[in-house]
Amino acid sequence: MTFVRWSLGLLLMSTSAMAQPIAADPPAASTVGAALPLWPNGAPGSEARRHEAEIVENSYVRNVQNPSLTVFRPDPRRANGAAIVVIPGGGHRMLVRVNEGDVPAKALNRYGVTAFVLDYRLAREAGSSYTIEGDAAADARRAIRWVRAHAADYGVDPHRVGVMGFSAGGELVSLIADNPSPSAPPSDAVDRQSARPDFQILIYPGPLGIPAKTVAGAPPAFIAAGSLDQCCALPAITLYQQLRAAGVSAELHMYADTDHGFNLAMHSERISLQHWPDRLADWMDDEGWLIAHDDRP
After folding, report:
1. What distance in Å separates the CA atoms of residue 187 and residue 120, rounded to the nearest whole number?
2. Structural domains in the chain plus CATH codes
């Protein structure tokens, strides 16, 4: 059975309940905003289809014609000004919108981070004319720019905007953080913002964009994958080795006896895997991303 996008809220409520063992529900004051289009008149080349509704099937999203961000805000008492654009995976055929988007965003709210979940155009969906390197990566770059341009509206620091991607979303992280960006004149004030994130988080990233082409000067990285992952263990290790050789601060976690798609480990009994979001929070704290700039020594 097929539902339009507004049904996602009910799906999120049931999925969040499963996530409680490793990511407690955000405080009651936490708020989730409506989907915010990245371009006022639709994405370049997709303007004519911007009014088409996204389709949700079993919590997976497809038919993304108007790329958007959904904002998950932490309790104001915890908010620290850090922001992360969360990019779900799904093989570029669909978006694993709940388990690799909304649930991780709520987990990030625990640490005072404002999360922005990206719905991007799908290059491998049946009948799609989009490309990964062109359209999907353009959506990811625009998302970073959009957050920086609207930083004051959400109480975030434009110099502490990170990006987090799962699987195919991890490929987009590498494409925008570790590979060259195409040069194009800005179309509006948002496009004048930098599209390179301040830090990058790759969770079982796919192979596209790895080995990376411009790791020199790449943002600090947190990388995690499963040792049994035939798709994405090697890209995770390869990128880590590249960043390390280039002198870029990077942290790698390879989880034993773990395959692809562990998201927030709702269905795993491995204690170490269940706590990987806490390792991410440790890393972000060590790197200073959870500390407001005015409070840095």
Report:
1. 19
2. 18-295 (3.40.50.1820)
